[in-house]
Amino acid sequence: MTQRTWRIGLTGGIGSGKSTVAGFLARRGAAIIDADAISRSLTTPGGRAMAAIASTFGESMISPDGAMNRQAMRERIFQDPQAKRQLEHIIHPLVSQVTAEQAQAALKTGHRVLVFDVPLLVESGERWRKQVDRVIVVDCDVSTQKQRVMARSGLNAEEVERIVAQQASRAQRLACADLVVFNQDLSFDGLDSLIGQVAADFGL
Ligand code: ADP
Question: Whose CA is nearest to atom 10 of ligand 1?
Fold first, then answer.
């Protein structure tokens, strides 16, 4: 019997444990497709978005090493909201293209569960939702998010709060979930065995 293919969107607020869950799923044979990593790769030296960025925004947006000058782009977007849309217009189709290529490659190597790790899946509206069969939300309360991110990154409480405030609310994320992984008051082993059950539901 051929196993069906699952496309799963994995999301969660910063510090929820999304990357940890992705790792546990990968260990059980899921292919992880990391949307942020793809997006970043497009604007590194030689990245697929660089030619369009140079022609749309000018050479002042390109660093000497050939990467996008992030600081200059941030300032440009701050001054001109239209620039953000122009940049997204370049980046989003390329993210879709590379995502599709990675998905094809994963299927070719026999993977039947593709996990799209997308931190801002909910914020993207239908864009990611329509590409996946199920959405898994990794959830915990906001104070746990803050503690974890502060411990991990050295950011202070205010900085973490600012990031959390920019993301979808917990309620908004939960409203999009087909499945919730509640990652709180749970050891790593406890989380791992919970993910074992989730993986088994998808045939892993
Ligand atoms: P995200 O990708 O959602 O930002 P991570 O998976 O990187 O989150 O987890 C954030 C931090 O919290 C990491 O340092 C991780 O090791 C830790 N963490 C995640 N889940 C747990 C857990 N159940 N118990 C203890 N620490 C955890």
Answer: 15
* Residues in the chain, pLDDT under 70: 1-2
Strand pairing category for 6-12 and 113-117? parallel
- In a domain? residue 157: yes
Condensed to tens digits (0 to 9), the pLDDT of residues 38-97 reads 999 999 999 999 999 999 999 999 999 999 999 999 999 999 989 999 999 999 999 999
Residue 64 has φ and ψ, to the nearest 5°, of: -55, -30
Name which residue sits closest to atom 5 of ligand 1, judged by CA: 17
d(CA 22, ligand 1 centre) in Å: 11
Domain hosting residue 24, numbered range: 6-30+111-201
State the helix-helix crossing angle for 81-108 and 70-79, rounded to 10 degrees.
130
Ligand 1: atom nearest CA of 186 is 23
Nearest ligand 1 atom to alpha carbon 152: 14
